[in-house]
Amino acid sequence: MTSEAAGVTRRHEFVLFFDVQNGNPNGDPDAGNLPRLDPETNQGLVSDVALKRKIRNYVALARPDAPGHEIYMRDGATLNTEHRRAWTAVMPEAKPEDQKKLPKEAKARELTRWMCANFWDIRAFGAVMTTGVNAGQVRGPVQLAFARSVEPVLPLEIAITRLAATTEADAEAKGGRTMGRKHIVPYGLYRAHGFVSAPLASHPVKGTGFSDDDLALLFEALGQMFDHDRSAARGEMATRKLVIFRHATALGNAPAHALFDRVRTLRVHKGEAHEIGADATDNWPPARSFSDYRITVDREGLPAGVEVIEP
User: Fold this and answer.
1) CB environment 150-161: b (16+ within 10 A), e (fewer)
2) Which domain holds residue 135?
């Protein structure tokens, strides 16, 4: 482990709000890249994998040459090559055929510790590193749930035209013009929940060494990741609010769901604010900006040992 990676010793939960305007926050490849939806409620969905991808990309940009901040799951990576690096560092005498099975317990822990020490996303999210060259598996202390829009969204399919033909035959048959489709959400405010387990960060055997510095970088990434993930497909996306619950102990001082219930989202229109779905909002126009919402955090009667942080 790196010397700074003592491991987080207090449990954390967080609520992340982000929005999208005229973009596709997370297309579904099984549905023609339509924005992901809950078919029963029409609420938009963004997968945990998509959020982790943006976090990884931010860390790679923010700490490109910092020791211990390599990214394991990255574009173009060959995972077994990274596993061999661990074997070379821990057991340089091992032959290729020996690397298919984990060695005895002590050496196996050294392999996974080497991977945790060098790759930030393994320390955070864990990894299954048994793909031929076996470097073990690690359960990560940081977990995210699917993000869900606070209200139903109505994806639009927009027709687009391309003037440049792909082939000469297309140019002759279609005059160079081809039609396409682009899927967008006009506006959606999404809410995601996250969890940081102190035991999985700091346990002497099972812990990944996810440190307080790593935690600070995670929260930094959640706040800025969309600023470095621009594309025509995603429109305008931005983190709007991050609410962190910090416990005084490793096991925590209150259930996560009870803390999440303290974070409420209200609809706002012409100075009025009501719960989403309230009868008073029936004739209101659809939300088209973050100013159409108000996020509140109930700090009254917080359980002892729980601190609320709003960066």
Assistant:
1) bbebebeeeeee
2) 12-309
